[in-house]
Amino acid sequence: MNFNFKNFVKSIFTYTPEKEYDFNLSEDPNVDNQNTNSESLEKSEDNTKIFQSVSVNLDYMKTKYNTLINSDVILREFTLNAKGKQYNAFIVYIDGMVNSQLLDDFILEPLMMRNKNNLHDGSQNKVVCEAVTNNITVRKVKKFDLSEYIMNCLVPQNSIKQVSDFEKIASGINSGNCALFVDTLSIAYDIEVKGFQQRNVEKPSNEIVIKGPHESFVENIRTNTSLLRRYSNTEQLIIENIEIGSITKTKCALCYVQNITNNDLIAEVKYRLNNISVDSLLSSGQLEQLIIDSNKLNVPQILSTERPDKAVTYLLAGRVIVLVNGSPYALIMPAILIDYLGSPDDKNLKPSFSNFLKGIRVLAAFITLLLPGFYVAITSFHQELLPTELLFSILASRENVPFPIIFEILLMEISFELIREAGLRVPSPIGPTIGIVGALVLGQAAVSAGIVSPILIIIVAITAIGSFAIPDFSFGFHLRISRFLFILLGYIAGFLGIALGLFIYASYLTEIKSFGVPYTLGLSPLDNVKGNNYYLPPVWKREYRASFLNTKKPKKQSKISMLWKNKTN
Amino acid sequence: MIKSKINTVEAIMVVLIISLTPSILSLPKNLIDTTRSSILINIIYVTIIAVAIAILIYKLLKNFSSSDIIDVSEYLGGKYFKSIIGTIFIIYFLVSSSWFLRNFCECLKIVYYPMTSVVFIIFAFIITTCLSSKLGFSTAAKVNIIVLPLLIFSVLFIFFANIRNFSFENIFPILGEGVFNTFVTGLGNLGAFTGIVILYFLPPFLKRPEDMKKITITTTIIAGIYLLFCVSIILFMFRFLLNVDEVMPLYYTTRYIEFGDFFQRLESFFLFIWILVIASFITINIRLSMEIMKKITNIQNVNSLVYSFGLIIFAISIFPKDYAVSKFLESTIYSYWTFGVSFALGIGILILANFKKRRSNHLPKQKEVLETND
Amino acid sequence: MTSFLKKFFIVIAIIIFLIAFSASYKSSNIGNLALVVAMGIDVSDTNKLNITFQFTNASSVSETGSSEKTEPTLFSIDAPSINSAINLMNTNIGKEVNLSHCKLIVFSEALASRGIQEEIFTLSNNPDIRPSTNIVVSKCTAKTYMKNSKPTLENLITKYYEVFVNSSEFTGYNSNATIGDFFYSMTCDACEPYAILGGISTQDSSSLSNSSSPKDSILESNFKPASGQNISENTGLAVFKGVTLVGELNEIENLCFMIVDNKVDGFLISIPNPNSRESISFIDIYMTPVLSTKIDAKIVNGSPFITINCNFSGRVYSMDENLNYSDSNALSQLSNSCSSYLESILSDYLYKTSKDFNSDINKLGKYIRKNFSTEGEYKDYNWSDKYKETFFDVNVDTSIKSSFLLTRT
Description:
- The complex is a heterotrimer.
- Chain A is of the alpha+beta class.
- Chain A folds into three domains: 138 residues, no CATH class; 120 residues, no CATH class; 167 residues, no CATH class.
- Chain A has 18 helices and 14 strands.
- In chain A, strand 11 and strand 12 form a beta hairpin.
- Chain A is elongated and about 120 Å long.
- The radius of gyration of chain B is 22 Å and the shape is globular.
- By secondary structure, chain B is an all-alpha fold.
- Chain B has a single domain, classed as Amino acid/polyamine transporter I, CATH 1.20.1740.
- Chain C is of the alpha/beta class.
- In chain C, helix 4 crosses helix 8 and helix 9 crosses helix 10.
- The longest helix of chain C has 30 residues.
- Chain C starts with a helix and ends in a 6-residue tail after the last strand.
- Classes of the chains: A alpha+beta, B mainly alpha, C alpha/beta.
């Protein structure tokens, strides 16, 4: 390690050009209604074109898929009948990923068996139109095209594509499709016959609500997109396909509502997704870390949810969703601080109930972050703040404790974190119980042994409960980690340390931008931007979409949304 | 060239934090010392004058759309004049924040950290403000939006929580030391409106420069009302404070707040809020100095200067030998300094620049008239 | 490498701050503090101060939740000043003496007569002392007073100290004199300080029985006939002129002080029965103020003239056979009797403070200020000397509403 103090000092005091990536969501609403292309973005790579000879294709596929070694890649050769002629053909598929019934009934049978279409050996040419003038008949004739014929007449399969290079064919086979190669054709067919086992749509395991729907995303991206389509029920919902990962080529879906979402936002998300250079992408959590603006403060800047109703709410508000194949979590961007303190159930309840709960959650966030720090600060530097009786209680309870307060509190906080982590790994019947019971028993035992004081157990327990009240897991985690910093600051310098720490924290928090939107928008008082207050107004007042998204349609509800009330008068 | 602009509300808050922060320290006491029990009349009188001055500044600046006083001084006297004026304002910002920082840290030391040297407390503030100054002016303004309402809330809370300790008769004799003292000598209290100096630098930062008039009037009026509350707390509660000097008058009044037997000695919470306020105040001062430096020297990324400015503030803060010197600097020298720099110098430059502009507008017209006559 | 150096510097900064603030931490950490709950200051034989500190043991709440009474402990030290006493105490008991939960400061009568300016200024300069700490002047020595202060109905003595002044609001027989108010009045040019008068009860209480109303309490501390576990008592007021004790007020005078200052929410008086044919000769009436006391001050021929207007409503407590309180004539008779009684005791009290003590403990000087237009004129008038020339006009308007549950027997 080369130690150069001079360089370090230079780096602090000298001019350095800015190298921060800065994206700003444009302030003027974009009313441009261009149709965005909804076809899949095809990456231009060097692809090998499919050969005309089926035997060459067969050898190529055998080599590519190592069929001598790979046990589940099946190559089925057969003879294809078309218009009385026979052609050599083969199909390639991966066993376990295809639906065998579909394969047999709708691909092999129509192609191999003799049927009316196949037997017809009439004129190879089809007459398109005929005109007779002066006893001269002029006929327009269409030449027989085998590829069109197979596609249009022979294979009664709903999803079939013609593909002319091996990369695309391989990609299709890998995702569960079946590839059909026919002699004399320099194209192959990518046929949809997926039939692998997957989880059914179940109840969400981590975001439980009282009044909302109980469906959650699954691993398969098509099922997830189908859930989105069902909830949104609009043809303006665009779902674009993007592949990420040079090895895994994981399919990601970029979803947005075309006539609402800001075009700059869509373009920025697409730009970031298309410029990721990784080998593999296996989960949405990984993708989230690859596309966020900055990693300051470890604060989450993208929401992730496993609920389709929450995802569609945000879609219709003008945000962009990214789904990753193989992960049941959808990523929602941009996301600001107040989104992490909102629950999907807020809009289902009356505003007074949900505002009360929102207030409780803000209190929970403060408690999680600051309560242990304040306790340490007050008992170390500001004991005059406590009422005399409470102070004597604390002193009495600490009479026999051998440790200083900071050590006590760190001991108990870390023990609780250990218990929480261990509770995740314990086999399921006793898993949840060990978390709660273990904590209580440990706490009680520690008090009886005289290691900690009872008041400290209460403080730590309230902090832990507060952290569970935060709806978003990553945000709660961030608060849990940050509170150690505040404990340390409270121990070093009491209220001075905590205040200065809070000031720096607030500064960094306000500086963070999530896809061009300032992170603390809607929180700063007197900064009321339409449609994105933290506290919900009554349902008839929610006329506007959040204005920071600069959507194409700012208004989502007419001024009088309950027309039935007015019409009866 | 200003990367991110601030909206009207943020601008008002920025001006207010510079105006209102000195009230935590010995400003209310200094105001009362000059005019005694006629302070309330005097504050109203001085607020009206301050509003008039603010409107004057707005009108003078209006002719140079979206330029601040540095650009105006460049127009007036060229590059060197611009550098001189810029340097004066940088020194003003850095020195005033050092003095306030030193006084506040002395108070913190007395109350909470008697065994700790004041150098470390100042150092803690410097580190914090340097780190947050690096993030930009609009970030500082946004954090300020959270901090300033806390300050106003704290003073209002002190006012209403102490209302049972007030004796409203302290306002008598109504003319204090006399009419001359109230209205003529009391003009010195104009030094309380230190936020006016920020108005010179605001126009380039605003998203909507047409709101400048609203900003000037609103900030001055709010500062006046806030000062009214501050001095009335001290006047109504403690007539004796007129005879006794203490470290931070407002802090002294918070010691009297109690609700029953449970909530007593809440002054720690107020100090907590005031620490945030001082940090925000210093951050904005450093950031403004950096922006002025950028204008004078054309540095592209001015963030590398943050630590240098922090060190300068640190050095100036530890310069006074004891509390008496720092208090003298903060109460006496500061108000003359404010008068000189923010009122005399600033308005002088603006008036001269306006004259120059008017003359240069007249001259082409005269040429046209001569030509048409020919 | 830069990030490593950055982390290194962060760690160094944390260590520096830890070391810098650790000294303050050691001095403020609750584990290292000995909390004084009351402080007594006497004059010692060697002309120094004898300071008594009262501590209480923290283990008065046990784990099972039940609490035991604990005896507070007293330590006394001879020292030239309060702070040197604290210093010596620090070495004696090992922990650091902290005054931020001190609820009571007791001065002995001997010391108060000598003047307590330096002590009050020193205590006010101390950031630990709360301005709401009560100040007591005890007729015995402060040490004796504190020795006899034991919690009877409470577990912690601090609770007793916090609560005992609450009785001032519904009896008027003592007051909530705080050191903050004392300091304010001491440094103010227009008012004088006061303190609670404390003492311990003795057997001899029959010596004072010459008042117009033998039932009304004219007793001060040290003479109360109450006996019980807690024999320290706090009734009456110690009146100061400047920094010196000049006089004492008994319970009924204390009540007048509270009425003029608007600090009493209700009080009990006994008045002679206007209708002497009735069986009982004295009637107990519970009075509550309807409006706050209005004070108006004028200057008439150079002398101050102060008008005090009070408005009370009352309900009759005492009951016997053959009484009729539903008759408005009876009630109005009672009201008049009440009013004249209150006027007489208020006048007596006001003239006592003005003529005997020349001490404006009710801060009437602030009402006089209205008559001047500048501070200079007010200073020249010299209120603190002019107070003894003041004329008072007391008007009390009482209306007895009814008795309590029984209106006619």
